[in-house]
Design brief:
about 650 residues, alpha/beta, Rossmann fold, 3 domains, nine-stranded mixed sheet, 20 helices, 22 strands
């Protein structure tokens, strides 16, 4: 306990004792205004009242209360202590035959007088502290639910030096408009932000900053709010988590309220789709699970969500030592009871993968291992072929050989009408997995479920971390082409839908899925990369093209302006599950495809890039391998979503 705490507790005890004596005098005067108690009685009664108050208040925490920050719980404790002290005082005098004022309601009067004295002292101290609170600071408009706004305002009010001055509040509900929180008016709803800001501008009271309190505002609603703030040149920041604000409100010396920038991921964090969590638990719980590429963005999130579903064992496989160590350490801390194993291995090593499969005999495999960076694979195409295509075949064949129930293969939108080796190699892996799945539907055996989606925000090598690094250096932000568009999804949402696809793909209960196919995640509308860059600059409190330059560098080898989720010959089909679509399968015989893949892998292992890529082109007829500098908008034969 800090040295000053005992002194403050003793001071509180002395104040409560003195106020208890004052309360007794007030109660006697109210109960018997014309009757004077003898002096000797006061000499006995005043110490008795003080002791009674201290004894009643100690277990209720009165000596430890911080008067300047007294609230409703403190007031209730004071009221209970006053009632106990009044009853105890009268009871002691009645037992010893001492004098009491001739009033039938003296106990109630005494309790109320004590409450006025002790409660009034605390209320006066709080009001005086608020009056002395520092004025000034940055003018802010708070947007969020009422309880989150209340926590933020309380935390700001406790600061010894004013950093923020609240001008008003925006809440999600229209029925709250016109009311007040901590004396601050609710000016309208979050959807009315533009109109509210226009009104404040006309009144000459435009805020300097808009603060998001709570996490209710996400996705499109957040984007609309940011647009309204942008039009008035107002930066937007997010308040700390409500739990942190609540802790600050309870502490004696609260830290400064530190605002943080709005993360770009929050703009695409759409409303949570209903997922079959029970089905996921049934699929994973009590089963042996293997995740390849477990150190990557998708593989790591798969490991987190699968671990929470209670598998009997979880094997994490990756070729990168440090990333594997990181995810293994994280799961050890989060789920110490889980049987877990971290394996350093390359999915291209057929003998190693077969021995591992025979050892652990997984019942469920999530195959996320891949080389995914388009320019890097263009520079070393044989590595992409061996990892993405042949590596997938090795994992699938080894899993099927040991009786695995299902393998989930993570594919990409770049596999549709591919112009890069990375996309074509993933398309070839799709073909092989679909061929295996058709065999399983016909003859039984391991189900092979393919899930296709676009870019994951914040993943390793993606554009968002690149833009963040460039912003930290002061720019410029580099964009390949003004018309470049991509599908984006948060990693949490993507992995949730991958697990949902696994549940659906292994269930075989829906007639709509009788012919199988590739599960495609509903990615929403594609996003222009240049718009993403401008938004990130604004979120950093800067102005695009003024404070930070946006520089166009030209398409890189293998890149397309527009990505697609469906090929023209695989028309999309709806499924009964929100967020999941299905592409009609395009594949051949698994044996023939596998034999052709072996020939391609032999050429790649021999270093014959020209013949290996020619074989890839024969296997994936739509592969249009052109230099990125010559690729224009006509690269795509079908626009996004078509």
């Amino acid at each position: 306990m800090p040295r000053s705490a005992p002194r403050r507790i003793l001071l509180n005890c002395a104040l409560d004792a003195g106020l208890a004596m004052l309360g007794l005098w007030l109660a006697v005067w109210l109960a018997a205004p014309g009757v004077g108690a003898p002096a000797w009685w006061w000499m006995m009664a005043l110490p008795l009242a003080a002791c009674g108050m201290l004894l009643a208040g100690w277990p209720l925490g009165l000596p430890r209360q911080y008067w300047r920050f007294s609230g409703l719980p403190d007031g209730l404790a004071v009221a209970a202590a006053c009632l106990l002290a009044a009853v105890a005082f009268s009871s002691v005098l009645m037992l010893v035959g001492g004098w009491l004022p001739p009033h039938p309601g003296f106990v109630a009067l005494h309790a109320m007088a004590l409450l006025v004295a002790l409660g009034g002292g605390r209320a006066a101290t709080r009001l005086l502290a608020q009056r002395k609170a520092p004025q000034g600071g940055t003018d802010v408009l708070v947007a969020g639910a009422a309880d989150a706004a209340d926590l933020f305002i309380r935390a700001v009010g406790r600061e010894r030096q004013a950093h923020y001055r609240v001008l008003g509040i925006l809440t999600p509900r229209s029925r709250q408009a016109g009311r007040r929180i901590q004396g601050h008016a609710i000016l309208g709803t979050i959807e009315e932000a533009h109109a509210v800001l226009e009104r404040l501008r006309a009144q000459g009271g435009l805020p300097t900053l808009l603060v998001l309190a709570g996490a209710e505002v996400q996705g499109p609603a957040l984007e609309a709010l940011l647009d309204a703030a942008d039009q008035h040149g107002i930066p937007v920041k997010r308040a700390p988590q409500p739990t942190l604000l609540g802790a600050a409100n309870r502490s004696d010396e609260p830290p400064r309220v530190e605002l943080r920038p709005v993360a770009i991921e929050e703009l695409l964090d759409r409303a949570q789709l209903p997922l079959d969590r029970e089905g996921m638990a049934r699929l994973v719980q009590g089963r042996r699970v293997l995740i390849t590429g477990a150190g990557g963005t998708i593989g790591g999130e798969l490991a987190r969500q699968v671990a929470a579903l209670g598998p009997s064992s979880l094997t994490l496989l990756d070729h990168g030592e440090y990333v594997l160590y990181e995810i293994d350490l994280e799961l050890r801390e989060r789920h110490p009871e889980l049987r877990r194993r971290a394996v350093l291995a390359d999915v291209r090593d057929g003998l190693r993968i077969r021995r591992l499969m025979e050892e652990i005999r997984p019942e469920l495999v999530f195959h996320a291992a891949a080389l995914k960076h388009v320019p890097m694979v263009e520079a070393d195409p044989l590595e992409g072929l061996l990892t993405n295509a042949q590596g997938t075949r090795i994992v699938a064949d080894a899993a099927r050989a040991v009786g695995c129930q299902a393998m989930v293969f993570i594919s990409t939108d770049k596999a549709v009408n591919p112009t890069s080796v990375m996309g074509a190699s993933k398309r070839l892996a799709e073909m092989y997995c679909q061929a295996l799945d058709l065999d399983a539907r016909r003859d039984g055996g391991m189900r092979c479920i393919t899930v296709r989606f676009g870019n994951v925000l914040g993943s390793t090598g993606s554009v968002v971390p690149l833009f963040r690094r460039q912003l930290e250096r002061g720019g410029p932000l580099t964009v390949t082409h003004p018309d470049m568009r991509r599908y984006f999804m948060t990693v949490r949402e993507a992995v949730g839908l991958v697990l949902q696809a696994a549940v659906v793909g292994t269930g075989d209960t829906a007639a709509e899925l009788a012919e199988g196919g590739i599960f495609v995640l509903d990615m929403g509308a594609p996003v222009k990369i240049v718009d993403l860059a401008r938004r990130m600059i604004r979120l950093a409190g800067l102005r695009p093209d003024e404070d930070v330059e946006i520089r166009f560098t030209g398409l890189r080898p293998g890149e397309k302006l527009y990505e697609e989720l469906f090929h023209g010959q695989e028309p999309p089909r709806a499924t009964p599950w929100p967020g999941l679509l299905m592409a009609t399968p395009r594949t051949g015989d698994a044996t023939l495809v596998g034999r052709a893949m072996d020939e391609m892998a032999a050429l790649a292992q021999g270093g014959n890039a020209r013949l290996a890529l020619a074989q890839l082109g024969r296997l994936v007829p739509e592969f249009d391998h052109r230099d990125g500098a010559s690729i224009h908008a006509d690269t795509n034969r079908q626009r996004p979503g078509g």
